[in-house]
Hints:
By secondary structure, the protein is of the alpha/beta class.
Amino acid sequence: MRRRRNAKIIATLGPGTSDEKSINDLFLAGVDVFRLNFSHGAHAEHKARFDTIRALEKKHNRPIGILLDLQGPKLRLGVFEDGKAVLRSGNPFRLELAEIQGNDVGASLPHPEIFAALKPEMKLLLDDGKIELKVHKCGKDFAETMVVTGGEISDRKGVNVPSAMLELSPITEKDHGDLKYGLELGVDWVALSFVQRPEDIVEAKKLVDGRAGVMAKLEKPSAIEYLDEIVDLADAVMVARGDLGVELPPEDVPAIQKQILFSCRCAGKPVVVATQMLESMIHTPTPTRAEASDVATAIYDGADAVMLSAETAVGEYPIETVSMMDRIINRVEVDPLYRKITDAEHREAESTASDAITAAARQSAQIISAAAIVTFSSSGSTTLRASRERPSVSILGLTPRWETARRMTLVWGVHSVLTPDLTSFTEMVDLAIESAKKEEFVSLGDYLVVTAGVPFGTPGATNILRIAKVK
């Protein structure tokens, strides 16, 4: 089950892809990590999907990652007298904290934290940005606005406040329950929605307490102001372009995407590009050329993974979509320009013994044309360092922990293999050669570059390198 590519694929499971055959077919088509979207579905449904994934893991003897995506706060209008109303450009529209029946001149907005953050001249977006309001006057329980862009609005449509920092935790009461349930199941990653500030990541990591990796979903403009701090605190980052595209002008999103990828690459943190990647394949068996180019651009820019949402959750062609994404990634990665770009954007190693060893492993592998770099890591830190170097060969990540093997399925270039605990580096070299043969990375006479931290089990202590010849 070795993938012939470095970048990974995340696919969202939904009503159309929850049976064993569908999940198995998605995995065989190229999915490395499955996303459980807790914005939809009951706990029992997610458990059934979780159990199916873990059963397939045993069947194929390959670690498979599972990502729990928390819903986060949902800011919504109240209800309307007739279930809907038409807002016309240039007309006034009043928002009130009180529970009222909405109409074409006003509606309820039951979120005091929004009124607390509003100021005159701020804009409010309704229904994913379809309607725009401009605030003229506001107080702790009301806002008088003018309709800038009108349209039809209906019950409980979403509200976005692009330029405001809301005093609101990203983890709601529902999220607390979902997080507790997911961690009890044993998910590998937790995606945190509505991140605004570094403190949001600190709050989530305290709750997760090391039981899963915490992925910051960057979907709020305020988060970009604290980008480097958030990247430093998170275990991984997702470029959530759907919500970013609502709160930012569309022309700003590509530059923000590149900025996030650059920050993550410098920090050596896994980064995922998500939303509308192959959107047209929800209803058609082939993507637009622009979508294919979009996926390719994310790979050229160094993304660890690309994610499918509705395409596999409710789409009519989920297997074809994953196969298409797999083919696009493979095509990019054999392009000589891809390697030139990757090498040109190579980050300088930090002044630590661990980074010196990892940088040397990359250079050694290139000089001797090694078949692979082999890392041994309980926590995954050695393997993450190897991935940060973006070597020209695959990374065979050996680990004695299922949790680490599963978490590394998100990381660029890493092929995780579960191994027994080891007591010596010599034993590890022998195991590295044996594993590389079994996983079809090497042939007789090939070289392997082997790195690890000794003593074993010490996180971050990458301090030894050896070149081994396969005999």
